[in-house]
Amino acid sequence: MNIFVLARAITYAALFIGLLFIYLPDRLLSWSGIVQPEAAGPPQIAGMVVGGIGGLIALWCIFAFVFVGKGTPAPFDPPRRLVIRGPYRFVRNPMYIGAGLGLAGAAISYQSMSIAIYAGLFLITAHLFVVFYEEPTLRRMFGPEYARYCGSVRRWWPGWAGSKPLYR
Fold first, then answer.
1. Least packed by Cβ within 10 Å: which of 81, 90, 132, 139?
2. What is the pTM assigned to this prediction?
3. How much is the pLDDT for 101?
């Protein structure tokens, strides 16, 4: 295991998470005048659960990229091998799903429509990025192996596109 790859992945993830999932939502909250609730009630607990699940999925993805793909999730430092293990057995884009759940958790916790809208815009942007950049790039990089994977695992909804899973 290359510790340098792990360090790069953690650094990129921290910068990405810090900007898109901490700094920008914080700005949205302050602009809309929403403050942190004084006590944790059902919305905050539900938000922590949803956000925590999203965070765990994202971490699982990062480790899959490092240990299976020998690279990072960053487009400028991609994996050297196609990652079809871990959460990628169930859905082709679990990292974005985890991030969307993290934002949804914040929206629930703060009861914030502005963060809910931001989460929706993030997922729309992720979809466009996947369709117009990521998938064509992966087709060029990994050819028939990626085509088989796409035929077996759905893009966004967990499950298998075909009658039985190709990857386990």
1. 132
2. 0.79
3. 94
